[in-house]
Amino acid sequence: MSGFTAAQCWRAGLTGLAGLMLLITGLTLPGCGQNPVDPDAISRTGPVVLVITGVDSAHRGSRPVTYEGLYAIYGIEVQGARGFTRPELTAMSWRQIRADFPVGSSPRVFDGPRLSEVLRSAGLEGASVRLTAFDGYEAEVPAELIARHEPILALRADGDPLATGGLGPVMLVWPRLNHNDLADMNDDLWPWGVFAITPYQPSGTP
Questions:
Q1: pLDDT band at 203 (very low <50, low <70, confident <90, very high)
Q2: For residues 119 and 160, what is the distance between their CA atoms, to the nearest angstrom?
Q3: What is the pTM of this model?
Q4: Is residue 96 within a helix (H) or strand (E), and if so which, with residue range?
């Protein structure tokens, strides 16, 4: 047998001296699981859904990010990265934006933290950033544009969480219906399926 059933594990705990001897000798019962999964703990923390790279050691948090999967495929260095879980993003101050996406479609109400606030929590206040989506699409957003229009990293649309495989887990949303100088904005700077943000230096800047 490759392991014990739940009933066998329960009986093993009642064997008194035999169970004590197993602990003393360092033996374990396969299949009895010394660290059972806590579904509530998983829902409170959750996996990392967004990574910001180029973060100094004081702002990296406690969630290390492994250089594998899409990070490796797209060459996104994560050694100095900060990983954000959905609960961490949810705990920030949110902004609501009514916006059309795709451009010209019926407006929806998007919710999420300001991009500027997320960058600030990673120690990158005032940075220009490149957002990378699951399909490899990249959108470069200058710091000046972020400061002027305060786009959000939307996690919800019309009250529903943005699903991975849909527009989620994170999408950049702008207030183009409310800001006159964004009236002619297309969808190039509206990346969805965003999983990584990297600071960059715009060309022509010292």
A1: confident
A2: 24
A3: 0.79
A4: strand 94-99
Non-local CB neighbours of 194 within 8 Å, separated by 6+ positions = 50, 131, 132, 133, 153, 169, 170, 171, 172
Q: Other C-beta atoms within 10 Å of 10: how many?
A: 11
Q: Exposure string (b/e) for 31-65, b if CB count within 10 Å is 16 or more?
A: ebeeeeeeeeeeeeeeebbbbbbbbeeeebbeeeb
Indicate the pairing of strand 156-157 with strand 152-154.
unpaired
The residues, ordered by sequence, that sit 6+ positions from 75 with a Cβ below 8 Å of its Cβ are none
Q: b/e map of 96-112 (b: 16 or more CB within 10 Å)?
A: ebebebeeeeeebebbb
Q: Is 29 exposed, middle or buried (0-12, 13-18, 19+ CB in 10 A)?
A: middle
**Identity at 130, one-letter amino acid code:** R
Cα 8 to Cα 19: distance, rounded to the nearest angstrom: 13
Asked whether the beta carbons of 97 and 152 are under 8 A apart, the reply is yes
Tokens 């660290």, residue located: 35
What confidence tens digit (pLDDT) does each residue in 58-76 have? 998 877 899 999 999 999 9
